[in-house]
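Researcher: I'm preparing a figure for a lab meeting and need a structural model of a single chain. I don't have an experimental structure, so a prediction will have to do for now. The sequence is pasted below. Please return the structure as tokens so I can convert it later.
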Amino acid sequence: MVEAKMKAPTLDPIWEEKYSSGQVQRYPWDCIVTFVYRHYPRDKERSEVKILEVGCGTGSNLWFAAREGFNVSGIDGSASAIKYAQERFQEEGLNGDLRVGDFTDLPFADNSFDLVIDRGALTCCGLSAGRLAVKEVARVLKPGGFFHANPYSQRSSSYLAGGSGPDGLSINIEEGSLTGVGQVCFYSRRELAELFGEQFELTSVKHLEIQEEQQANYMVHAEWRAIAKVRK
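Model: Understood. Here is the structure written out token by token.
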């Protein structure tokens, strides 16, 4: 295991607390399954298609991709999350390069990956850290490679329910779907575009809103699902 400490506000300590206490996700997000199948290069064998997930947590998305025959790597700031993922891969006879580290300083060579996945990870660090991470994603992607980014939106009820933190972060969120997850950076449409800068061509931007209408308080969960192609 390669370990490196992540500098605040890249990693909120709450995630190590959650993972070390046994919180895990075992199955992949449907949006990631769709992204992988729509964008992996068809002119290669799956074993030659390299997929990286930044902020991979307990590795559920990479578990799916590895089972489907892809070459997978993942990085997360939580040692407990990576330990769980490594043990699961070993138990099931799956291969994966899973590391503890900082996604603003990726320990991978230039032009290494065909696809990079972010599923609600970059949104847990500040704006400047997020931009550093995306620059690193652009560096490690192969020419024409695709990046899936999934930050939360300022249209979320939780955006107005927290205090103002450093670097665009919301802290101490008390209402909505994102209570108890620590610091969150909610993105506007403009900030989403700025996140990708000139290094990427946005090929798809979707905004999802889910309203909770059964409970007394009107709540909206809102997130962005963006897909971008690296320019090289």
